[in-house]
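Troubleshooting log. The previous structure file for this entry was overwritten by mistake, so regenerating from the original sequence record. Sequence copied from the archived sheet and checked twice against the printout by T.R.
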Amino acid sequence: KRREPWLFGENNTQMIRKAIHERYTLLQYFYLLFYRAHIYAEPVMRPLWVEFPEEMETFHIDDEFMLGNALLVHPVTAPRVTAVGVLLPGPDEVWYDFRTFKQFQGASAQNISVTLDAIPVFQRGGTVIPLKTAVGKSSDWMGNISYELRVALDVKDPTDRKS
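Regenerated output below.
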């Protein structure tokens, strides 16, 4: 069965194009995760309990995962869903919506609206994500494209020397 993006209509083609664009802007982060998987045997995709082993509620979460230690993803797998419940773990953590930069406190459950073109993705406070500022048709073309560093601040007081 043919599955080319343009066979699903213009609206769906635009959503697919947006998802592919987002994936390519994150390509350097994926390369970093695969490097760390190779060198340190760290899983690229991790259940929440790998990052938050002290939090028993994370052991039962099977509809969210971490990409590395920085991105929490809640895929939407059911049809016609308009909102999902997302657990943002870590009582001392702060999380940011990856697209809007809206801040959320950790150790909280959030009801997040979803659409066909955007699933919930959150960046963990205290992390840095390298992003390409533009995407192209090949890795060679993207070689000279500049980077943006997406810095998510954590809750630690920078003036507190004990931290």
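The two ends are 56 Å apart (CA to CA). Archived copy saved in two places this time.
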